[in-house]
Amino acid sequence: MNEILDIVALVLVLIGALLCLTAAIGLLRFHDVPTRLHAATKPQVLGFILICIAVALALRAWPVVAFLVPVVVIQLATAPLSAHMVGRQAYRNGTIDERSLLVDELAEARRTPPAAGG
Fold it and tell me: Which UniProt keywords are given for this protein, alphabetically ordered (predicted)?
């Protein structure tokens, strides 16, 4: 049984590392902010979770699981928040191609001066 868990952990680390690698390649290859945000958050977070599961399987100790669960929860909470803040700032700076947006919910707030409450 231990050998099977070690093989599963090895496969999970390999898949997680490949997902993190694709996230890094996506950050380098994609041209605009929204696609880079997708590359930075989605495969990176999934790869990180798979690696944490692999570590828990390889070490087979409850203290390790108790340590990794908050780490994964914090990662799941902070990755979308940071991506949202980066995307919002890119929109405010005008570095997002507005023609590529299907719906622009912030267009009215952008036209309103900040002192007017918008």
Answer: Membrane, Transmembrane, Transmembrane helix
**pLDDT of 28-40, one tens digit each?**
998 888 888 888 8
DSSP state of 114: G
Whether the CB-CB separation of 94 and 60 falls below 8 Å is answered with no
Amino acid at 113: P
- Per-domain residue ranges of the chain: 2-116
Indicate the Cα dihedral angle 103, 106, 107, 113, nearest 10°.
180
In the 8-state DSSP scheme, what is residue 32?
Answer: S
The pTM for the full model equals: 0.79
> pLDDT of 66-102, one tens digit each?
999 999 999 999 988 888 888 888 888 888 877 777 8
CA 81 to CA 95: how far, in whole Å? 19
